[in-house]
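Teaching assistant here, posting this on the class forum so everyone can see the example we discussed in section. The complex has two components, and the goal was to see what a joint structure prediction looks like when all of them are supplied at once.
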Amino acid sequence: MGATIVADEVSRTFGPVRAIDRLTLEIPPGVIYGLLGPSGSGKTTFLRMVVGALRPTEGRLLVLGRTMPDRAVAGQIGYMPQTAALYPDLTLRENLAFFGRIYGLRGRKLEDRVEQLVHDLGLLGWVDQPLYRFSGGMLQRASLACALLHQPELLVLDEPTVGLDPVLRRSLWAHFRQLAEQGKTLLISTHTMDEADRCDLLGFLRGGRLLASDTPAALRLQTGQADLEDAFLALAGQPGIPVGEP
Amino acid sequence: MSWQRVLALMLRIVRQFRRDRRTLALILVVPVLVLSLLGYIYRGSGEPTRLAVVLEGDSPLARQVLALLEENSSLQVIVMEREPALQAVDRREVDGVLVLPALSFQPGTRPEVELILEGSQPSAAGAIAGAVSRALPQAIIQTMSPSGQAIQIEPRFLHGGPQFDQLDYFAPTFIGFFAFFFVFLLTSVSFLRERLQGSIERLIVSPLDRKEIVLGYMLGFTLFATVQSIVMVIFTVAVLRIHYAGELWLVVFLTFLLTVGAVNLGIFLSAFARTELQVVQFIPMVITPQGLLSGIIWPVDSLPRPLQWLAQALPLTWANEALRAVMIRGEGLDALGLHLMVLIGFAAAMAVLAMVTLRREVA
């Protein structure tokens, strides 16, 4: 099987603004791909094109073999947007049941998935509470649960661990790793360096342009910087941080 | 098209409604309260119009006029002297003063009756002028006819009847109006929230397609609109004892058709609102003209011609006509072909617009 995501010279403009500029990359199945970049660099725009919520203005974007946007692969993609994007007046169980049914889960299978995710994400005592009672971090986990529910081939997570405590963050990353080992592909945006380091592949995004895309080790080697943040800055062409000779 | 997905969406909307007690009260209790209020206004005993009568000379005819006016239950007649009467009308203690001279038809005299109206309240002035102009000829006939009998008018009603009043006339249209209003408002707010909280994006990237989203919304909201119309029909018929002639399920069916259009209009227009306040701003644009022109209060035939044309373009006009035809005249589906076609056409056109709106979500 080919790459899960193939972007070929993909651009996206919003009026005069070029949010993504001729981005080309390939993400093979079974890896965690981290998209690292400051806010406004185009991370969310790219993720939204991958899930089919935005149309590329130029270029070709293939996801699971289909040119996006295409509803045919919708059922195999799990998407967690940056904001919770759930129904605050419904309980966690009702939210999960709604998204589960939309993705074709029902009956016993749906119940089992809900129980398991609620347990894994540490929301056991909250499953019958309406979401307006949830804290930011709990909403984040609830939103992640909705994306994981139908065990998609491709998981697209927009800054999934913002505001989570370190213990939980670690356990989530262990969970992501487990999914990748099962052959699922994960595309995760982040702006923290320690998370970037946990990815198999890393893309540096700045001003809509992909500065580099490689393993964290290779990026370190290429820039001669031990620190990923310095590597990023070096690739962004910041004065004072020279690009080291490989 | 997957019915499982459509039902999942409908179930979600039903659950959200059940949680939202205030909205539930809005759609079920408010119409009943408004109808009760109208019932009380039209059928409760209001303050009568006060008429001062000044007798300036005695004659059988003048006494007969006074007697007839005193019989009139909507008037309170007070016999006064001229000066106090004129002061009373000036101070608005009475709504009018009728000055009755001896009233004779001797050759060479010109019987003249003086009527002074307070005039700032058209309905009171109209009631007095009407009552006096009816009482005079009747009194003349009664005093002149040998038997003392007036000429009897016995109306024969094709529809309605002697007991048929304004409330009977309004009630059928209120059922349609409330359904349209609340469904439009709730759908547009609920769809706007979907957009604001970002969940619409989750739906758009899910296997749900546009048809399923529109259908799920339609089923969820029309379910509550149908419950509302059933509550209103039961209340108007059983409690207010509204006159009805036709089959009541037809009333519910017509309301259902109207609200299918309202749901889709709500989805469509919510695309042009960025805040909930902006949704409220659609009410004077969408609801008020229909409230005024659709024949709820003023019959469409009585409007100036250009407004009649405008009224013909409003779905509520057709719904109101059909609801009245069913409830007041007892007409059946066979007589309402054109009305049904217009309502179905409106619903279909709005559904297409709603789907076009949803297509733009993938920008």
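For the discussion questions: The CA atoms of residues 153 and 184 of chain A lie 5 Å apart. The radius of gyration of chain A is 18 Å. Think about how each of these relates to the inputs above.
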